[in-house]
Design brief:
Elements (H helix, E strand, L loop, with lengths): L3 E4 L8 E4 L7 E6 L6 E2 L5 E9 L7 E8 L11 E8 L4 E8 L3 E10 L6 E6 L6 E5 L2 E6 L9 E10 L8 E10 L5
Antiparallel strand pairs: 1-2, 2-14, 3-13, 4-13, 5-10, 5-14, 6-7, 6-13, 7-8, 8-9, 10-11, 11-12
Length: 186
């Protein structure tokens, strides 16, 4: 019943795939910095990644998230400081969300439904925390106000697939690359 995370065999340039199993239990696969929080939220961070979700259906017990956040919590909504994309429910409808511990922007639809097995490039530009911009394949799909983020709020990149329960057909999230840039502290 253990979820699987690891390199894609013989893929050019390398990829990582995360695949929960069909065992009826809670499972999570995640890539992050093991809660080593090193990116100051006010240092103009820009997160970008290229990934795909593969599978024929998404059950309401499954969710995918990627972006920047503080320490991991199994309940994604409990992370009080985050800027991320989010897919959950019975479709691959893409949402974006943010929380600066003052203003909590719940998942907001981009009106874009991802196609299973198709790579997309995502970018979260927090150069201006008053208007954090969310892009998919260079198209602006949303903006979140997170102006209450402080220099003491440090984050990490975060990419995850999680399921609460169920024996649904296994879905997977494959990461081709991830990059984060920010202004270095003096």
């Amino acid at each position: 019943g253990s979820p699987l995370i690891g390199p894609v065999d013989d893929s050019a340039d390398g990829e990582v795939v995360m695949t929960p199993t069909t065992t009826n239990e809670a499972q999570v696969c995640r890539l992050d910095w093991d809660d080593q929080l090193l990116i100051p939220a006010t240092k103009r961070p820009i997160f970008s990644c290229r990934l795909k979700i593969t599978g024929t259906a998404v059950a309401t017990t499954w969710r995918f998230a990627w972006g920047l956040q503080t320490a991991y919590n199994a309940t994604f909504a409990s992370v009080s400081r985050h800027l991320r994309f989010h897919v959950s429910g019975a479709t691959l409808l893409l949402n974006y969300e943010g929380d600066d511990n003052t203003t909590d922007t719940d998942p907001t639809t981009t009106t874009r439904t991802l196609t299973s097995g198709t790579y997309y490039t995502f970018r979260i530009d927090a150069s201006n925390t008053g208007a954090v911009k969310f892009y998919i394949d260079d198209d602006l799909v949303g903006t979140v106000a997170a102006a209450a983020l402080a220099a003491t709020d440090v984050m990490q990149p975060f990419i995850a697939v999680q399921k609460d329960s169920g024996t649904d057909t296994a879905l997977s999230l494959t990461v081709d690359w991830c990059r984060v840039i920010w202004d270095r502290s003096a």
